[in-house]
TrEMBL record:
Keywords: Carbohydrate metabolism, Polysaccharide degradation, Signal. Residues 257-364 form the CBM2 domain. Gene3D superfamilies: 2.60.40.290, SGNH hydrolase. It comes from Streptomyces variegatus. One of its GO terms (biological process) is polysaccharide catabolic process. Residues 1-36 form the signal peptide. GO terms for molecular function: hydrolase activity, hydrolyzing O-glycosyl compounds; phosphatidylcholine lysophospholipase activity; polysaccharide binding. Pfam families: CBM_2, Lipase_GDSL_2. This is Cellulose-binding protein. It comes from the Bacteria. CDD domains: XynB_like (cd01833).
């Protein structure tokens, strides 16, 4: 059968070979094929704790969806345990083992294997409820915390660690538990200040204030839907700030100039209060070794308070009351150790307690 020239594979290849030979004779080489830049790895977040975190721990689903809705899409919740439902799509991997005591996890060295299997960048830890129920001394629980932090840093020297002041507990079978939780929570901020480092900060997230065992749990211990919403709302600003800071770059890959985060801290104080409101103040301090060109703070007021006025910054408020405050043009640049302060007025429900707020901040390095 007669074949046309187009049906011969040799005739299809020869023009290409001839062109390449001509290019080589002229001292030219074909340009390499462009390749797409590798996608950045997602930030890996480990929810760590006991049944409040993992059985089913539906605050994780609420938190996941809120992070995604706010633009944090390149994240990966990790853990050796699978999701347990919760009625909404989310990344349900977690490390919330029902019934576990943090002291047992430390004593039996259970965490290193879990870290090796999941390689988190950030740990979100609500752990110690069973220890408090078992009347274990706060100092021993904190010693377990310290051991776990050391294991986290052995896994990842740049680990960022969010530690909760535990939600209240008031089960019918433990009359003393309510006070024990309050006593233990009071020790956590001092421990965190002593344990945190510039490279691996420890951030305390107040899950206790404004949480009611009567309305936010179904048994005096475990959160119901209302409790899940409150827990997620408290984690969100601290975790969002850690995500905004980004995963530390590999050596030789410093990232885009001017976009590297710089360390800063935020401190809240109540200036004055009255029926139905109060005046608050937040001080942002540059705790890094270099200057920053701007900062962003988040303020989550306790007990349903809402910021209604703000000065020395620009304000954006989310539906749940979380306020995002960015520096004004005149107070964003801070030398190492320098501070800037913004003030606000908040309205509060009639049932609110003393003024309180969870505050965090991130800094922006100047363009190189």
């Amino acid at each position: 059968m007669h074949r046309t020239p187009h049906s011969s594979p040799y005739l299809r290849v020869m023009p290409v070979l001839g062109l390449m030979a001509a290019l080589l004779l002229l001292g030219l080489t074909p340009a390499p094929r462009a390749t797409a830049a590798p996608a950045a790895d997602p930030v890996r977040v480990m929810p760590l704790g006991d049944s409040i975190t993992g059985s089913p721990g539906c605050w994780r689903a609420v938190l996941w969806n809120r992070l995604v809705d706010s633009g944090h899409k390149d994240i990966d919740f990790v853990g050796t345990l699978p999701p347990q439902g919760c009625g909404q799509a989310h990344d349900g991997d977690n490390e919330g083992h029902g019934g576990e005591l943090v002291t047992n996890v430390a004593d039996r060295d259970l965490l290193p294997g879990r870290l090796a299997a999941t390689r988190p960048d950030i740990v979100v830890m609500h752990f110690g409820t069973n220890d408090v129920w078992s009347n274990i001394a706060p100092d021993r629980i904190l010693a377990a915390y310290t051991e776990l932090v050391a294991q986290m840093r052995a896994s990842n020297p740049d680990m960022r660690i969010l530690v909760a002041q535990l939600i209240p507990m008031n089960p019918s079978s433990c009359a003393a538990c309510a006070q024990r939780v309050a006593d233990f929570n009071a020790t956590i901020p001092g421990w965190a200040r002593a344990t945190g480092t510039d490279r691996s900060p420890v951030t305390v997230v107040d899950q206790w204030t404004g949480f009611s065992t009567a309305t936010d749990t179904y048994d005096g211990v475990h959160p119901n839907a209302s409790g899940d919403d409150k827990i997620a709302a408290r984690w969100f600003p601290a975790l969002a700030a850690a995500l905004d800071a980004g995963v530390p770059q590999d050596p030789g890959d410093p990232g885009d100039p001017g976009e590297d985060p710089a360390a800063c801290t935020a401190r809240f104080r109540a200036v004055s209060s009255w029926q139905g409101g109060y005046q608050g103040e937040v001080t942002v301090t540059n705790t890094s070794a270099s200057a920053i060109s701007g900062w962003t703070a988040t303020v989550l007021p306790a007990d349903g308070a809402r910021l209604t006025q703000l000065w020395n910054g620009s304000l954006t408020t989310a539906a749940d009351g979380t306020a995002t405050v960015r520096n004004a043009p005149w107070n964003g640049a801070l030398a190492p150790g320098a501070s800037a302060t913004f003030g606000f007025v908040a309205s509060v429900p009639a049932t609110a307690g003393a003024p309180a707020a969870t505050v965090t901040c991130t800094g922006k390095a100047p363009a190189g």
